[in-house]
Amino acid sequence: MADEILSAGAVEQEYGAEQIQVLEGLEAVRKRPGMYIGSTSASGLHHLVYEIVDNSIDEALAGYCTEITVTINEGNTITVTDNGRGIPVDIQPQTGRPALEVVFTVLHAGGKFGGGGYKVSGGLHGVGASVVNALSEWLTVRVYKNGEIYEMKFSRGHITQEMKIVGKTDKTGTEVTFAPDPEMFDTVHYDYETLHTRMREQAFLNAGLRITIRDDRAESADKDEIQRFESMRYEGGIREYVTWLGKNKTALHEDVIYMQGSKDDATAEIALQYNDGYNELLVSFANDIHTPEGGMHETGFKTALTRVLNAYGAKSGMLKGEEKVSGEDCREGLTAVISVKLTDAQFEGQTKAKLGNAYIRTLTDNVVGAKLTEYFEEHPATAKAILEKALTANRAREAARKAREAVRNKTGLESGGMPEKLKDCNEKDPALCEIYIVEGDSAAGSANQGRDSRFQAVLAMWGKMLNVEKARADKIYKNDKLAPVITALGAGIGDEFNLEKLRYHKIIIMADADVDGSHIRTLLLTFFFRYMRPLIENGYVYSAVPPLYKLTRGKTQRVAYSDAERDQISAEMRGDNPNAKIDISRYKGLGEMNKEELWETTMDPEKRTLRRITMGDAIEADKIFSLLMGEEVEPRRQWIETNARYVVNLDV
Q: For residues 98 and 90, what is the distance between their CA atoms, to the nearest angstrom?
C-alpha cells in the first residue's frame, strides 16, 4: 500500500527549469510577514519549517522522495534534507537565471503552476522557499543532482553566494539550512515537541514515507530523560493515525474502518473508529495540509455518514417510521481522519485553514456513501453497535434539551436573569467586557472589591466541578458549578453555541498557582474545549497569572511571577548593598491578597499578565484531555509518574 500511495500519479520525468514558472516578486514579505506565515509569534516561526518540509513532501507525493530529516541545530537553526530529485539548477527560461535562485528569491515561483513539476502539491502558492529565505537571517541550500553538489547562499532574501558546484555526489535531493531572522520574530527558539507533532502527523499521512526529527542543541542533550530523536514510518497510513489518536479511549469495534476512492486526479482517504466516549475528533487534511476549519471534504464526509447510518437503521428496522438520527448523534464518540489529494486545491489564505473545492465534497460523499454501506452490509454487528450509540446520543440530546429548558425556567435566562454568584459589569458592549471566573469566595470577594466595575465582571466558583470528559450535556446543564458559567456567558453550549450571544470577549480563569488551582483550570478548560470550543478558537479565553512572591525592602514592594524573577528582583532591590535585608514572602493563594494587591498584580490591564489559551494543536489537546480526564486509569498513572519530576513550586 505504501508504494501505491507514494507513487500515485507519478510518471518518471525530468524535473527541469522549464517547469519553474515565475508570477511575481518578493518585496512585500518582510513588510507584512503575517500575510504569508500567519504571525511573527512562535507559530509563525515554526511555520517556516513546515513550508520547507511541505516542499519535500511534494516530492514524496510525486513519487520521488522516501526520506525526510528535520534537524534543530545548535543556535536554533534548522536543516531539512530529502532524497528527492533535487531542485532544478539549470537556467529558467523566463528570467535567464538558475532555477534554484528563482525558487528562493521570487515569490510564487515553483513547480506548482501548471509547468508539469507536480500534479498534487501541498505548497500550493509556491511561496514557501522564497518566504523562508526572506525571513531568515541567512539561508544555505545544497542540491544533490547530476552527480554534483550545487550550493547557494542568501541573507534576508538577498544572494550572498551565487550558485556554484562544491563537490561530487552519487545521491539526489535537497538540503536547506536557515537561521530565522530575530528582527522579524518575537522568538527564534524552536520547540521540539511542536515540530515533532507536525512531523508525526505528516508521517501518518504519507504511508511508507520515513520522516526523522532530531534535536542537536546542547540544552536538549542535558535533558537525557526526554526523547529528542525519532524516526517515523507508518505503513498503515491514516489507519494507524486513527489507532494512535484513540489509544487512550475504549474502542467500540476492533477494526479501523478504511475507505478510499478517486476520480480524475483527485483521491480521498477516510479512516474512522468509534469509542465509548461522548466526544468527536475529526481531523482533516488536503494535500497533507491540516485544515482546522474543515471545508468541502469534511462536509461531504459528514453528509454521507449521517445518510448511511439512517439508511441502515431504516433497512434493519432499528429506526421506526420517521425516526432519524442527526449528524451530531452520528459523530458522538467518533475518531476520524480525512485526507484528500487534488491538483488545484483552493485554500483560504496562505495558512490553508479551509478547503473550498466543491467537487471534493461530491467525491468524499460518494466514497463514504458506497464504501461504508458496503462495510455495514459485511459487518452487521459493528453497524448495529454504531447505530445504537447514535440512538443513545439522540435520546441524551432530547434529555439535554429538557434539562436546558428547566435551567432556563429556573434561572430566568430568557428574561435576562443572572447567577447569584455573578457580579456583573456596567458596560454592555461584549468587545469591551471581561469576566473573571474566580476560584473560591474569598478570592472572589477581593476581586469584586478591587475590580473596575465599568468593564470587569466576577463570577465565583467553589469546589471541584463536574468532569465533562465523563458526562453528557444533560448532566452539565444540571450541574450547580457549570450552569452559572453557561448562564453568565450567555452563548449556550454544544450544537446550540452562538458566539454572537457571548456577553464577554475576555474570559479570564483566575485560580491559585498550586495543584488545586491547576486542577480547576484543567476542568474548566476541558469544559470550554468540549462544549464551547469557538471561545478558544477565537482567542477569548485567558488564564490570569498571579504572582508567586512579594519582595519588600523598607517601603518598596515588588512582586515576582517565577523563581528566576524573584532572584533577579531581589538582586536589583539590593543594588550596591549586598547585605541589604529583603523580605520575601510566598503567596499561598489569591484569597490572601487584599483588593489593592489583587488589582495591582492580577487585574489591572496596565500591569497584569494574562496567558491567552489557544487551540495550539487540537489533536494534542484532545489526547491530553482524554488522558488526564478520561476513564482509562493506567495511561494517566504512567503520565503522572513520567512528568511528576518536572513539577515545581508544589504546595502540599
A: 5
Count of alpha carbons within 13 Å of 431, Cβ hemisphere only? 0
pLDDT at residue 7 above 80?
Answer: no
Q: What is the DSSP letter of 602?
A: I
The span from the CA of 519 to the CA of 512, in Å, is: 10
Q: Identify the CA nearest to 57 among candidates 268, 204, 179, 157.
A: 204
Half-sphere exposure of 608 (CA within 13 A, CB side): 21
Rg (the chain; Cα; Å):
28
**How would you class 636 by CB atoms within 10 Å of its CB: exposed for 0-12, middle for 13-18, buried for 19 or more?**
middle
> pLDDT tens digits, residue range 560-575?
888 888 989 998 898 8
The segment(s) of the chain belonging to CATH 3.30.565.10 are 2-232
Q: Which residue has the cell 452539565?
A: 476
Segments of the chain assigned to CATH 3.40.50.670: 418-546+611-623
Fold entry, domain 238-397: Ribosomal Protein S5; domain 2 (3.30.230)
Tens of pLDDT, residue by residue over 463-511, are 666 777 667 777 777 788 888 899 899 998 887 889 999 999 999 999 8
Q: Which residue has the cell 511528576?
A: 644
Tell which residue, 527, 535, 516, 536, has the closest CA to residue 439: 516
CATH architecture assignment, domain 2-232: 2-Layer Sandwich (3.30)
Pairing of β 541-544 and β 506-510: parallel
Q: Of 8-12, 209-213, 460-464, which range is least confident?
A: 8-12
| CATH number attached to the domain at 418-546+611-623 | 3.40.50.670
Condensed to tens digits (0 to 9), the pLDDT of residues 264-321 reads 989 999 999 999 888 889 999 998 888 888 899 999 999 999 999 999 999 999 999 8
Residues of the chain with CATH 3.30.230.10: 238-397
Query: Model's pTM, two decimal places?
Result: 0.72
Alpha helices of 222-295 — where are they, by DSSP H? Answer: 238-245
Q: Give the three-state DSSP class for 103.
A: helix
Q: Which residues belong to the active site?
A: 439, 512, 514, 516
